[in-house]
User: Fold this.
Amino acid sequence: MLIKVPEQGTLADVAAHRLAHSIVTGELAQGQKLNEAELAERFGMGRGPLREALRHLEGMRLVTRIPNAGTRVVVLDRKTLSDIYGVREALEGMACRLAATQMSDEEISQLSKLLDRHEEQIKKEGGKIYSQSEGDLDFHYQIARGSRNQMLMDMLGSEQYQLLRMCRYRTSRKAARTKPALQQHRQIVAALEQRDGELAELLMRRHIQGAWKSISEMIDKEEESAA
Amino acid sequence: MLIKVPEQGTLADVAAHRLAHSIVTGELAQGQKLNEAELAERFGMGRGPLREALRHLEGMRLVTRIPNAGTRVVVLDRKTLSDIYGVREALEGMACRLAATQMSDEEISQLSKLLDRHEEQIKKEGGKIYSQSEGDLDFHYQIARGSRNQMLMDMLGSEQYQLLRMCRYRTSRKAARTKPALQQHRQIVAALEQRDGELAELLMRRHIQGAWKSISEMIDKEEESAA
DNA sequence: TCACACTTGATTGTCGACAATCGGAGTGGA
DNA sequence: TCCACTCCGATTGTCGACAATCAAGTGTGA
Assistant:
């Protein structure tokens, strides 16, 4: 699970995680205004920690804040999503290239086993995309870890870039892309096993481009049906 | 100037900017503990806004925070700097590639003029690296803007990645690299004028690799003299 | 009827004080 | 002499209340 639920730590941290979760899962709608007093009461805390949490989320780009006018959940329009996937392609491509030389054989083997479990899960419960999405993010995160670049890990990992998970949730309803995605993951692992960084980067970039293409089409359909 | 000084807005915003400036310029030493009450008094505000500011800086990775143990200025060791420059190479390379197709002729022309002013400045006051560093960051930021990718702009621009400015300050003392850097900037602009994204990316990546190499050697010397 | 200023309500921004927690100095015993 | 325990000061975490600001609704005059 990438969703950390540290019921320990400061209240601000707890609030940040709970809010992040609510936003990512869509429980809090995009563009929705966040009332400090109301949220503070719901979480059973004062407004101080909550405001700190909102600052944190602002840094994560999960909310936008306007002085004296409150904070709102970010809205992911097409352009924003496109920008995100563009950056992601560059960063994850880089992560893959580095991982090809930095990961241990053991780690790559673990990665392969992760895909095995993943495949089994798909066979068992075809529709359960939810867990797929989680597992997929795990896959990507493991590669980010394999890059040994802390900055990259932060950006692609838990802290930053919850936005990614947000798009996933938003678009994981009818993601029929699980099988080709798994296939691509396998290819990437194969490239890692061969220690071929260039190939691994290429494959990862294609993989993400494919994901964006798929999501982009889904948005088109939504807009059509909405119009 | 990239240093925004919004003496308007909330106190927390003001504090965040002042603190960021102090950290980037080294006024607050790396690893230094930040006492909330003391800072609050120095800035003439309560601890509430200051804590919000610290949360903000934490998101920028300018400080690290440990619950119940306070926040400290981040320490830029060699590995961290290396990681930053790695990520920067990927992101700015991408920005360059996009800018080659997205920037208007007018913008590219402006960029060229920026380099003219830059060159003049170098001739006039050879040693004044400070302004060079600012101008250089302006150059890079303009290209990030040219990519038309908001996420990229945020990451490379003012908000995120003040860390970069921090390394600059830390290493801009004896940066004899201004001339070759300017030359490389010119080459990049030339590539943009030719709308050659691939070349622009290649040149930018080399440019950043060169910068890292220079800084890396500088660190080596420092460590030698320290040892 | 429309425009404009005012009032009012709600929400955000800020402060001071209290509670919880941690690190370290000091002391006692093995 | 060294280790462990205790206590205390300092610092962080939290809350409630007050002030400032903005938005909407209302009334008045042209």
